[in-house]
Amino acid sequence: MYYLLTAFGRNLEPQPPAPMIPVFATPDLEEAHWVRGLLEAEGIPAEVRGGHLQTIKRSPHLLESMEPIVWILDLRQREAAQVVIDRYLRGGDEAPAGPLWVCPACGEELEPQFDRCWNCGTGRPPE
Q: Residue 112: how many CA atoms within 13 Å on its side-chain side?
């Protein structure tokens, strides 16, 4: 049971969980998480459900029910989510290509899509 809490932490009334809407299914768990990240980068809260038992691939019936699915949490964002997913499927949201860069502060080697060092937070130097 879910409860709505006030600013003072008192329970008001039971609230049902928000309905979730499936928007993307894939047999690849990493791809599902990539799409979730794309949605969240656009301000669309999302979750990946399923895919936790992908190593058990003996039964096709089990595999179908275990496929990772990306769900959004707000029906009003369904169209926006579809735009993001369509752009991804057309190849518009691939990781940027380019050379690795080295953080001038700590020497960490970073992929081109990162603008800051994950290790120390230093910004990428201008090229």
A: 8
